[in-house]
Amino acid sequence: MFAYTIRRVITGILLLVVMSVVTFYLFYASSTTPERYACGPKCTAAQLETTKKSLGYDEPTYVQWGKFAKGVAVGRTFPDDPELRKAAPQLVQECPAPCLGFSTGYSAPVRSLIQDKLPVSFSLAIAAFVLWMVGGVALGITAALFKGRLLDRAIVGLSLVAFAFPTFFIGLLLLKFVSIRWGLIKLPAYTPLTENPWLWATGMILPAITLAVVYMAGYIRITRAFVLETMSEDYIRTARAKGLNQRTVIGKHTLRAVLTPLVTLSGLDLAGLLGGAIITEQVFNFNGVGKLSVTAIQRFDLPLIVGIVLLVATIVIVANIIVDLLYAVIDPRVRLG
Amino acid sequence: MSSSPTQVHDGTRSQSAGDPLLVVKDLKVHFPTSDGVVKAVDGLSYTVERGKTLGIVGESGSGKSVSSSAIMGLFHGSSAQLSGQILLDGTDVLTLSEKEMRALRGRDVAMIFQDPLSALHPYYTVGAQIIEAYRVHQDVKKSVARRRAIELLDRVGIPQPDRRVDDYPHQFSGGMRQRAMIAMGLVNDPSMLIADEPTTALDVTVQAQILDLLQDLQREFNSAVIIITHDLGVVAEMTDDTLVMYGGRAVEYGKTSEILTHPEMPYTWGLLSSVPEVTGDTSAKLIPIPGNPPSLLNPPSGCHFHPRCAHRDKVPGDLCVTTTPELVPGGRDPHHLKRCHLADPEDIYLQEVLPEIAPDLVDEIAAPEQTGAPGVHGTTGTTEQGGRA
Amino acid sequence: MSAEQQPGRHVDPEATTSTEPEAAPAQHAATAVATDGSPGHVQGHGASEAPADAKTLLSVEDLRMWFPVKSSGVIHRTVGHVQAVDGVSFEVAEGASLGLVGESGCGKSTTGKLITRLLNPTGGSINFQGRDIATLKERELKPLRREIQMIFQDPYTSLNPRHTVGSIIGAPLRIHKIVPENKVLDRVRELLEIVGLNPEHYNRFPNEFSGGQRQRIGIARALTLNPKLLVADEPVSALDVSIQAQVVNLLQSIQSEFGVAFLFIAHDLAIVRHFCPEVAVMYLGKVVEIGDRDSIYQRSMHPYTQALLSAVPDVKQAAIGGRRERIRLEGDVPSPINPPSGCRFRTRCPIAQDICAKVEPPLLQIGPKHKVACHFPGTIGNHPTKPATTGLLGLDADGNADPRASASSELNTSPGYADRWYDIDRQSMTGA
């Protein structure tokens, strides 16, 4: 298991290196002049040239990537060009390792930008995850147990409706009625959990529900399908033939088997969300990683884009490793090696 | 569909010494579907005594497995419609509530399934599954149940049972898994054991081991056993009585030694002639039954077998098509029941069927009964019969 | 350089697909085997007989398939091999049938996959029509795919559910471009008729057919290109008994009409006995006994073959009651990763002695068409007490090298049968 984890981490790091290279080349393949966004609207040709140089955009792509990689490994100093550093020593900034670069749009280190926004996205993702897992799995099992009857049809039908609505629509609907018209909950806003748990929870509830509803719809259907499939397995018939009651047959024998695919799916879904829920964050005006990435792309902020790509990739890779390790814990037939 | 109302023969035997443990009377299991009613079992009667073995033979869709699931009460809570009687030691299990049935299931009647790999839960150890089966019915501590599980694993021939009890099913070989399955079935000393294709998924030498084990255990526990199979060889070697099923109905029922030596129903002939043998005459022909097994949703009228029957023209008129034959005694033995309109099946079998499928047996079987002399029925492969260690 | 351009070796595509020469036999076969529907009197088939003096079609020598076993460390290293097939040799003549029997894990299916080159052998040769196909590249294999076809066990998973029967059966014709597109349908109809299905059902999907009918479709697909050799891997074991006989009869008809050779892989000893005039018994990757039907089923000399045969439940036992006398094998088949030394069967063998652990018994020809790999070959109850092979191998009775003797040059290790063989009773070479 240990050797397996080490091997997976090594391949994960290699994958991250490849992804950063690809991001650099893709960025320049889009035939844009990123320095124009950094320089501002009233930029002279000479200023533009200086900006380009100070940002290092004048160098070949592989040299830029090399500097980025060095920054991640040992840190770096901005601007890269020694003449510029000499010319304007007041602008020189140190960026300790692991340095993800310096955002041109925000004029701040990428790492601190991401570190600021990450708690918002994490809170949102985990709150939504808890909601959809509890609701989705419970409703999915219920639907399976009442297969073909009214309750089953109602659950499946409603999940279809929820699935059909776009995220922003559900978000706006909740905002409009729950918060504004009925005033049940004050307008959602992010408060750090450490500062005030109650405010954190109330501020988080509407965005979390919005996000959860969409995922829950999928999980109801998936759980229902897994439960029905498992209940037709021979070992469930064996369990019934032993004389076990329905509660044990479902709660122990069926659920144990359903757990495996659910863990895999939900782990990867959660990982995808931890990197930012773009639409939900926009709707509720939450300053999370999702919103940050939209801004980064709008402003052609290469260092920020690379930083976010690597963050999301890292989360997904780590989640994949954890899910596979969990898989071996849940299913005794799986041997990692 | 057009079957005339038939007086189903009461399968109860009068000559039996011990009272029968299981009496199935006119059992019907129907499944309503959107396309119509599937008559999986349609009027089935049989009895099994303590210490005796009944073989139920048939192909897929004949209803052979459905009838045993009904005995286990596994259709509780499903859409299946059951009627008739299933008397287990005098109690009609069809009238029991789910809770009462649960108390019976696994304690008085246990079941062994075909594929032990899929019938055992992959996520729990073999021991945990046996312990669970024991503690459902016995109010004992886990440690006591564990000792019982080890004791039974030892009894069914698992080496190092105290260590293997903590293994998962996938760590066992196919044969060992079936042994574990048998141990689980026997953990509560059931009086009735149903084995549904217990050796179909196994290799032939392992099959022999498992059949030996089943036979030893039956003698030891004096339980009544039903073996459901499609293998006539297994039936011949393991059972006292044989019930041949086709399209949800019994078509032939009697002593195994009778049914397999003097079959009186063309479907049984067909089964015998479609299976080659390892011993015997190589000039024997393999004669398939034409066509496909019947649809239970829309079974053929009259005798369900008539569309595939090669001897239909020997019955006057359209009797086979219009009228369902009753399950009645044939010409040989009052306890040998057959569902067929043929007047003289014995003659047809001896003169038309046997010469094709077992030319070497014609003289022996056609000759007057010489029971009790095993040598008489020795096969041409006598080199193999003799001098075996 | 492509093998496709080699003239002569392969049958002229025009000739193989012209419908004329086959039309008559096809009709005949169809009437003989079309058992679906009409009850009538069904034609039964006796056991297949071997064609006399047929040329060798397939000659397999010392075939090996070792699958590497990797370690579980940070870096995967090969730490051993699953010796799935280890030194298998046999021959199949044109139009003949060789049965390959054995229990699960004995390597019989792997052997089938090697011969169809679905797997790349680790070693050994596969001579098909005089040419070694064991090491051919994928591109060179294309013409071979016409000549050797496979029939699979499970008729439910081996047919693509999204393709019509017509496109499944016609696909090989299109891939190999041997008939013009407008003739494909004619050939498909003809094939459907040969296997006893309604030729007008070419437009249906596999799920509209029963299991037996699907197996017929699989057979039609395999026949499309007029193969010389059909590798049938458990072709009937997934079917109901009454349907099994239909399919076996169909295969027999096809063999007699078209002269196709069969490698018939099955665990059912009775069906193999019926279908194959020659049978090879495998255990743990090796052939332990091979011979004609009578040698294997009436006079088997290997204790494993004897145990296998005695384990089959016998219908005739009904007249006597109770179980048949049998040789009981204890335990399970050992792991093919670390197979027992010497004779692989020795750990479960009732007559094993010290020599069996030391020296692997050669596959020794002991009759005109009978070879056995055992130090103590003999019919049940007549196994010799002293090893019969020591004289040939230059060993003493305990399996140690005998300084006074040397290995005989007369030991025949070729895949086929020689004119002279070792008489185990007289312990010397003899001939017909």
From TrEMBL, chain A:
InterPro entries per UniProt? BPD_transp_1_N, MetI-like, MetI-like_sf
> Which PROSITE patterns has this protein been placed in?
ABC_TM1
Q: Does the keyword Transmembrane apply?
A: yes
What compartments host this protein? Cell membrane
Q: Which SUPFAM superfamilies match?
A: MetI-like (SSF161098)
Q: Which GO terms describe its biological process?
A: transmembrane transport
Keyword Transmembrane part of the UniProt annotation:
yes
Instruction: Specify where it is mainly localized.
Output: membrane
Q: Which domain of life is it from?
A: Bacteria
Which UniProt keywords are given for this protein, alphabetically ordered? Answer: Cell membrane, Membrane, Transmembrane, Transmembrane helix, Transport
Cellular component GO terms, alphabetically?
plasma membrane
Which positions, given as ranges, span the membrane? 9-28, 122-146, 158-178, 198-222, 262-284, 304-330
Q: How does it sit in the membrane?
A: Multi-pass membrane protein
Write one Pfam family the protein is assigned to.
BPD_transp_1
Q: Where is the ABC transmembrane type-1 domain?
A: 118-327
Give the similarity note: Belongs to the binding-protein-dependent transport system permease family.
Q: Please give the name of this protein.
A: ABC transporter permease subunit
Organism listed in the record: Nocardioides flavescens
Lineage, top ranks:
Bacteria, Bacillati, Actinomycetota, Actinomycetes, Propionibacteriales
TrEMBL record, chain B:
Q: Which GO terms describe its cellular component?
A: plasma membrane
Which Pfam families does the protein's record reference?
Answer: ABC_tran, oligo_HPY
GO MF term list: ATP binding; ATP hydrolysis activity
Where does the record say this protein resides?
Answer: Cell membrane
Q: What is this protein called?
A: ATP-binding cassette domain-containing protein
The UniProt entry lists membrane topology as:
Peripheral membrane protein
Recorded hits in InterPro entries, A to Z, give: AAA+_ATPase (IPR003593), ABC_Ni/Peptide_Import (IPR050388), ABC_transporter-like_ATP-bd (IPR003439), ABC_transporter-like_CS (IPR017871), Oligopep_ABC_C (IPR013563), P-loop_NTPase (IPR027417)
Segments forming domain ABC transporter? 24-272
Name the family the entry cites. Answer: Belongs to the ABC transporter superfamily.
| Coiled-coil regions listed in the entry | none
> Which NCBIfam families does UniProt cross-reference here?
oligo_HPY (TIGR01727)
The principal location of this protein is membrane
Spell out the residue ranges making up region: Disordered: 367-389
Automatic annotation (TrEMBL), chain C:
Biased composition, Low complexity: where in the chain?
14-34
Residues covered by the ABC transporter domain: 69-309
> Which spans does this entry mark as compositional bias, Polar residues?
406-415
Instruction: State the CDD domains in the record.
Output: ABC_NikE_OppD_transporters
Chain residue ranges for the region called Disordered: 1-50, 395-432
A single GO molecular function, which one?
ATP hydrolysis activity
Specify the domain of life of the species encoding this protein: Bacteria
* A GO BP entry: transmembrane transport
Q: What is this protein called?
A: ATP-binding cassette domain-containing protein
Q: Which organism is it from?
A: Nocardioides flavescens
Q: What is the lineage of its organism?
A: Bacteria, Bacillati, Actinomycetota, Actinomycetes, Propionibacteriales
